[in-house]
Design goal:
- The complex is a heterodimer of chains A (about 110) and B (about 110).
- By secondary structure, chain A is mainly β.
- Chain A has no helices and 11 strands.
- The termini of chain A are far apart.
- Chain B is mainly β.
- In chain B, about 0% of the residues lie in helices and about 60% in strands.
- The chains are: A mainly beta (about 110), B mainly beta (about 110).
- The interface between A and B is medium-sized, with 21 and 22 residues.
């Protein structure tokens, strides 16, 4: 199993500002995944972060809004930029083990005011 | 339309009672199906993962079933405890992508 440390656990931000979320894994992984979970809804994949290359974004998500860094095999950041109230959500990072099981960070609850 | 549908959306049960959650999916080609438990303010934690050939898998008081022909799965919670109060999410893996259900919120009352 993988242990993922994600921070901050929650934040309240002013609209127009940005929030950077950090995710640290206790083992080296090739891919890290960033998800958004809006209230009462299922998780939606934002992007896949690959070490040494640009992140791969899903339909509806763009790099300007959700820039991602992946400086090494154990760490990644997701920035939610130019915040609006619609960005209020839970953001989660995730990794998968060789058996295909997914492990998640504790999540970051973002409230934009 | 979500390719993974869960029911009920929420349920309340008394401590010690059993309950069953349902998951229907249309995702294909199927690779595996997972059930996760998500406590409030926490990330999802894996309960079970089943491949095409597995019909049932248990993890303590949690038992998952899978009917790959009808594309249905269930999660049965036996002798519920207050700590079982959480959201339970059904996740189907296909083509290296995960499709998530919206979850069933279970509230266990003393």
């Amino acid at each position: 199993s993988a242990v993922i440390s994600q921070k901050p656990s929650r934040d309240i931000c002013q609209r127009g500002t940005s929030l950077t979320i950090q995710c640290q894994v206790d083992s080296q992984v090739t891919m890290m995944f960033w998800y958004r979970q809006q209230p009462g809804q299922s998780l939606t994949l934002i992007a896949t972060a690959n070490q040494g290359s640009e992140a791969t974004y899903e339909s509806g998500f763009v790099i300007d809004k959700f820039p991602i860094s992946r400086p090494n095999l154990t760490f990644s950041t997701l920035t939610v930029s130019n915040l609006s109230p619609e960005d209020s959500s839970i953001y989660l990072c995730s990794v998968e083990d060789p058996g295909g099981n997914a492990f998640f960070g504790q999540g970051t609850r973002l409230t934009v005011v | 339309k979500n390719q993974v549908e869960q029911s009920p959306q929420s349920l309340i049960i008394l401590e010690g009672k059993n309950c069953t959650l349902q998951c229907n999916y249309t995702v294909s080609p199927f690779s595996n199906l997972r059930w996760y438990k998500q406590d409030t303010g926490r990330g999802p934690v894996s309960l079970t993962i089943m491949t095409f050939s597995e019909n049932t898998k248990s993890n303590g008081r949690y038992t998952a079933t899978l009917d790959a022909d009808t594309k249905q799965s269930s999660l049965h919670i036996t002798a519920s405890q207050l700590s079982d109060s959480a959201s339970y999410i059904c996740v189907v893996s296909a083509n290296y992508k995960l499709s998530f259900g919206a979850g069933t919120t279970v509230t266990v009352r003393a």
